[in-house]
Amino acid sequence: MTTLRLLLALGVMGAAAGCAARPFDAHFEAGRFAEAARLFDADSALHRDQRALLRAAIVHVLPTSPAYHPERARELLHRMLTLHPDGEHAPEGTRLLILLYEVDRLTKEAERLRRRSDSLSHQITLLEEERRSLQESLERERLQADVLRTLAERLEADLRRTEFELRTLQNDLQLLKAVDLQRLRGGGATGPQTAPDSGGSADSSGARSSSPGTQSPPDSTTFRPRQDTTETRPPGA
Predict the structure, then answer these.
(1) pLDDT: which is higher, 204 or 144
(2) Which of 23, 50, 56, 198 could form a disulfide with 40 if both were Cys (CB 3.0 to 4.6 A apart)?
């Protein structure tokens, strides 16, 4: 915009040369643009004057002018170029008109970019809110994960303790079973002896004793008949 204003100023300098023969020109050259615009609108004779039309357009085209009105400036320039296409100030009017259209184009482009910037800013705001929301959700999930991890560690510790207690109980049960078996075996070895059966048992010499009333006959190998020691004499001796 600074460059364009400089170019506009250069156009003003080219069109402002001349003597101040009328009140309108005097106010213009003195920089009293509001009064110059009022006098131009009030004097219909100025509406056909080539230099008056150019100066009136400059009054409305300068951004620092209290009578700043780009659309009115374009209208006056088009009128001047229509009435005086080959006039002395036609090149300056054409250059100023081109600059006005360029300023208008850039102004619209700036407005489009401003709206685009506002839209992007709004989208950035929405994305930022979404990011904060996701971050809060992640924080909640992280806290939940910490709680679940702590609970899992506690359950795992309880499981290990329970398994240890179970193994201890199983070992104690095995020991109790072993003690009971030893007691049962020890009680059978030191208890009362049972009576021998009716068939008899072997004595210390290896002979078998007979049951009463059922004596077995002596062994023929050990039986010897008793010999009479009395001498037998024949009869009549």
Answers:
(1) 144
(2) 56
